[in-house]
Amino acid sequence: MGIAEGFIDRLTQFLGPKGILTGPGDLEPYTVDWRKLFPGRAACVVRPASTKQVAEVVQICRENAVPIVPQGGNTSLAGGAVPDASGTQIVLSLARMAAIRSVDAIGLTMEVEAGCVLTNAQNAAAVEGRLLPVSLASEGSATIGGIVAANAGGVNVLRYGMTRNLVLGLEIVLPDGTIVNGLRHLRKNNAGYDWRQIFVGSEGTLGIVTAAVLRLLPRPKHSVVALLSVADPKSSLELLALAQEELGDQISAFELVSAASLNLVSKHSGLKVPVAAGEWFVLMEAASSLSGLKDGAEAMLGIAFEREIVLDGVIAESAGQASELWALREHVTECEAREGKSLKHDISVPLSAIPDFLRATGQALAAGFPEARVNAFGHLGDGNIHYNVLVDEGLSSEAITRIVHDTVASFGGSITAEHGIGQYRVRELARYSSPSEMALLSRLKHVLDPQGLLNPGKVLLR
Ligand SMILES: Cc1cc2nc3c(=O)[nH]c(=O)nc-3n(C[C@H](O)[C@H](O)[C@H](O)COP(=O)(O)OP(=O)(O)OC[C@H]3O[C@@H](n4cnc5c(N)ncnc54)[C@H](O)[C@@H]3O)c2cc1C
C-alpha cells in the first residue's frame, strides 16, 4: 500500500520546512544503518521540535496508517533505527529535541530531551562535578532517547548497571498519540506499575521517548587505568576476582580484548599496544574519591604478577595515557568494520562459564569453518562478549551463527546482552525464546500498538 495523497503536504504544513526532509540526498543518512547492512527507503524524515509536535505527527501517521521508525544517532548495530525497503515508512528523528533541561547536583538527577547526544549530557553533568556513567564508543553520536530505547550497556555496567538502572523518569508518546509525562526526579516511587521499564529497551516498538530523567553520581576524583596481558580467559576471571577482592566496587570497567582484536586495531588505526603480547588483554579502570587508589591498584597488580595471573602490563601515568589505553578498546568495533564483513554475536553467559564458552565455540567453529576468523572482545565483568566472526565470501553466515548461538543457549546465555534485537536478530529471538515468552511480548505490543505502526519488524517478526 502506498502513502495516502496529501500525507506529506499535511506534515509539511504542520512542521514547517525545517521539520521535514523529502529529497533523496537528504534522506540517505537516515535510511542506512551504521553497518550498512540494512539499506532502507523512507517516504520522508520528520524532525519535530517538541513533544507536542511528536504527538501530532504520530496522530497524522495513525490516521493514514503510516509506520514510524524512531531514530536517535542511528548507531544501532542491530539495524533497529532504519526503515524497511518499501518506501512507505517514515523516520522520526529526535535530533531537534536536544535540550538539557536541568542538572540537579544535589538531588543527583538530570532531565534531558531525547535527541541530546550522550557526550553533551555527560559533559553537562561533569560541569556540575557529577557523573552520567553510561559510556560507549558511540557516545559522540548516540542520543539519550537511543540509549534508553536500546537499554544501552557500555563499559561501566559492572559498577553502575545498564541504562535501565539510571532511568528515574520518562516522557513517552504512545502509538495512539497520547503524551504520558512521568518525568519524576524520585529515588523511590512505588505508585502503581513501574511502566517506565517496559519502554526501556523496547527499541522504539512501544512508544517514542521524548525526554528522560537520569540518575547521576558524584564524580570520582581519582581514577586508575591499566592494560594487562594474560595467558587465557580463565586468568582474566582470576584477575577480576582479585581486583574485586582488593579494590571492591571501585572497579568500574573490566574489558577483555583478544590479541586478534588488538591486531585489527593496530592494522587499521595505527595505534600501538604498549604491552608485551599475551593471547588476551584486560583493560581495567578503578575510580574513587578517596585517596590511595593508585597505591591500592599497584599493590593488587603486585599480587597478580606474583601469582602469575598477569604476564605484562602498564598503568597509565596521566589522563592522556589513560585515554590512549582506552582508545585501543574503543577502536575495536570501527576497525572490525574496516576489515570487512562480520557476523556480530553480542552474547552473554554466566560469568564463570566464559572460558568454557570461548573454548567450546572456538572448537566447534574450527571444526566446521577453519577459515573463519574470530574477533572476540567485550565487557568481561558483565559476562558479555562480542563474539564476532569475520566472514569472507563463501562462508555460511547462518551456519556460523547457529554454532555460536546454540553454544550460548547450552550455557544458559543470551543472544544479545546489550545491542538488542533490531532487525538483525529478529528471527534469532523467536528461535531461542520460549513460545510463552514470545506470546507475552506479542500481547504487550498489541495492547500498546494494535495497528503495529511503531517500528514494525524490529524485535518481533511482522
Ligand atoms: C562503535 C560503536 C560502539 C558501540 N558500543 C556499544 C556498547 O558498548 N554498548 C551498547 O549497549 N551499545 C553500543 N553500541 C550500539 C549503540 O550505540 C547503542 O545501542 C546506542 O544506545 C544507540 O543510540 P542511538 O541514539 O544511536 O539510537 P539509534 O541507533 O538511533 O536507535 C536505536 C534503537 O532505539 C530506537 N530509538 C532511538 N531513539 C528513540 C526514541 N527517542 N524513542 C524511541 N525509540 C528510539 C530506534 O528505533 C532503534 O530501535 C555501539 C555502537 C557503535 C557504532
Q: What is the averaged pLDDT score? A: 96
Overall shape: globular
Ligands, deduplicated? flavin-adenine dinucleotide
How many helical elements?
16
Indicate the multimeric state: single chain
The CATH C-level class name of the largest domain: Alpha Beta
Rounded radius of gyration (Å): 23 Å
Distance between the termini: 16 Å
Question: Could you name the CATH topology of the largest domain?
Answer: Uridine Diphospho-n-acetylenolpyruvylglucosamine Reductase, domain 3
Total number of domains:
4
Largest sheet geometry: 8 strands, antiparallel
Structural class: alpha+beta
Architecture of the largest domain, according to CATH? 2-Layer Sandwich
How much β-strand is present in the residues?
A: 15-25%
User: Tally of extended strands?
Assistant: 19
Q: Percentage of helical residues?
A: 25-40%
Segments where pLDDT lies below 50 for 5+ residues?
none
Write up what this structure looks like.
This protein is of the alpha+beta class and 462 residues long. It has 4 domains: 7-93, Uridine Diphospho-n-acetylenolpyruvylglucosamine Reductase, domain 2 (2-Layer Sandwich); 100-218, Uridine Diphospho-n-acetylenolpyruvylglucosamine Reductase, domain 3 (2-Layer Sandwich), CATH 3.30.465.10; 222-263 and 276-323, Alpha-Beta Plaits, CATH 3.30.70.2190; 340-435, 2-Layer Sandwich (Alpha-Beta Plaits). It has 16 helices and 19 strands. It has helices spanning 7-15, 24-31, 51-63, 118-127, 144-150, 157-160, 196-199, 233-247, 259-269, 293-306, 319-330, 332-339, 354-368, 397-410, 426-432, 435-448, and strands at 20-21, 44-46, 68-71, 90-93, 100-104, 109-113, 130-131, 167-173, 179-182, 208-215, 217-218, 222-230, 251-258, 280-288, 312-315, 342-343, 346-348, 373-379, 384-390. The strands form 4 sheets. Strands 12, 13, 14, 15, 16, 17, 18 and 19 form an 8-stranded antiparallel beta sheet that branches. It has a 5-stranded antiparallel beta sheet with strand order 5-6-10-8-9. Strand 18 (373-379) and strand 19 (384-390) form a beta hairpin. It is globular. The two termini are 16 Å apart. The structure holds flavin-adenine dinucleotide. The site of flavin-adenine dinucleotide has 39 residues, from strand 3, helix 5, strand 10 and helix 12.
